[in-house]
Design goal:
It is a single chain. The chain is 23% helix and 25% strand. The protein has 11 helices and 22 strands. The radius of gyration is 21 Å and the shape is globular. The termini are far apart.
């Protein structure tokens, strides 16, 4: 990718991405090679160009940074991954009192707590915002029984951030800055919007269907969701963070940020994902685990309001690639670029996302129809003119940020309980998996979230 590229299929312009920053790192022995490329503008309203030092919201890649601080506390003997969180937060109250007594940090880092995950309650800008956020979790439902399945859980990482605060006596922002940003020398990484204003900061863009992306009405998510997704950084700083993990927890100046054992533990298999197609096939402690062409990779994606970020690391070859974007069909751009980059640099083929066959299999879909519900999402699966359709309605605070909270898609069969749909204007199919818990309760899994059937 080169600045101003527009014609090739893998260029940002071809995917309606207003601005993007790409970074590639390769280390081996004492050598380090990095390359960067940029495209487009921070905002279509100002047309200020993206440069090397532009900062983008990296969204849920933040979760790996939060997990890194958690593992530092484990290294220091201040936290046990398998001890009940109630030992640190005796005031913790959840909708299920038994879960409040039993849930552990390992449950949070592996998205298996069952706490309904998409809770973005704004509890203000004060240093007590996480404390207030955790207080309101008593009113949040349990999406699935503790440890019964995997369901992506932003709320769990905000709770993890509060645990960090209780142990360190600092805000999550302060702890992250002192424990990660400073030792790694990250000069273009922040957590607060007033700090992002000091840099060349990208603005998110949104669009409906095939319309051109336009600046989002809100710049960022609430401070109370910081541990789940509020880091803003340059591509170079994201790669420095990746490099520390590639080098077993050591900063460029030799400072040990994490023990080698803790860095390795973060990459190890913890739980499988019912939908292994959207992101990875399994999860570590914070890291997503990917199986590409017989090679084990780690990484994470991030999506905030009109911004999307991607990070993939191939430890065996010392390669890390990050892509930061501010709108458009960012996932299509990621698919095109990463397929090309990893094939050329590493000889590794990126797996193709599941695509419906030319002649879809005959499937008795009536058993999947009904209503599924979790925090922030009301899902109806219905048959219409002999076609299975999925009607998704966003609810809660996020719905207010959307021009149209309800979207409807045709579900095309791929296999017996695997379907896929494609959003207008995109080339990537979204997998939808229907399955049951070991105890028999029916669920649908897509967007890496489990949603129980309620009627």
């Amino acid at each position: 990718m080169t600045t101003g590229s527009s014609g090739c299929p893998s260029s940002p312009a071809a995917h309606s991405v207003p601005g993007a920053s790409l970074g590639i790192l390769r280390i081996g022995g004492d050598s380090k090679e990095v390359a960067f490329a940029q495209h487009g503008v921070l905002s279509t309203a100002t047309e200020v160009e993206v440069t090397d030092d532009t900062v983008f919201q990296i969204g849920s890649i933040t979760k790996v940074w939060t997990s890194t601080v958690v593992m530092q506390l484990v290294d220091e003997g201040k936290l046990d991954l398998d001890a009940p969180l109630a030992e640190v937060l005796p005031e913790l109250q959840l909708a299920d009192p038994d879960v409040a007594k039993q849930v552990t940090m390992r449950h949070l880092l592996t998205h298996t707590s069952g706490i309904d995950g998409d809770i973005f309650t704004d509890t203000g800008r004060g240093d007590d915002c996480l404390e207030l956020y955790v207080d309101q979790l008593a009113e949040v439902g349990q999406n699935h029984p503790l440890g019964a399945t995997f369901s992506y859980c932003n709320a769990g990482f905000n709770l993890a951030g509060r645990v960090i605060e209780k142990i360190t006596g600092q805000t999550w922002d302060q702890a992250l800055r002192e424990r990660v940003f400073t030792p790694l020398g990250l000069a273009h990484t922040v957590t607060l919007p007033e700090d992002a204003l000091l840099f060349r900061a990208a603005v998110g863009h949104v669009a409906e269907g095939d319309e051109d992306p336009h600046p989002a009405p809100v710049w960022g998510i609430p401070r109370s969701s910081g541990p789940a997704g509020l880091v803003t950084a340059s591509a170079a700083d994201v790669l420095e963070f990746a490099r520390m993990h590639l080098e077993g927890g050591v900063a460029p100046d030799g400072t040990r940020v994490l023990s080698e054992a803790a860095a390795a533990a973060m990459t190890e298999h913890q739980t499988d994902v019912p939908d292994p197609y959207t992101l990875g096939d399994s999860w570590g402690l914070g890291w997503i685990r990917f199986g590409w062409d017989g090679h084990r990779m780690i990484g994470h994606d991030g999506n905030t309001i009109g911004q999307s970020a991607f990070l993939r690391i191939l430890p065996e070859q010392g390669i890390a690639v990050t892509l930061l974007t501010n709108g458009g069909n960012a996932r299509d751009l990621y698919e095109d670029l990463y397929r090309e980059i990893f094939a050329e640099l590493a000889g590794v083929a990126m797996p193709a996302p599941p695509t419906p066959p030319a002649t879809p299999p005959a499937v008795d879909a009536t058993r999947f129809t009904g209503t599924y519900e979790r925090a922030s999402a009301h899902i109806e699966v219905l048959e219409k003119d002999d076609v299975l359709r999925l009607r998704l309605t966003a609810t809660g605070p996020m719905a207010a940020l959307m021009d149209e909270p309800t979207h409807e898609f045709d579900l095309v069969p791929v296999a017996d309980a695997l379907f896929a749909f494609r959003e207008p204007g995109t080339q990537t199919w979204t997998p939808v998996v229907f399955y049951s818990l070991p105890t028999g309760e029916p669920y649908v899994h897509f967007g890496v979230r489990a949603t129980p059937k309620v009627s």
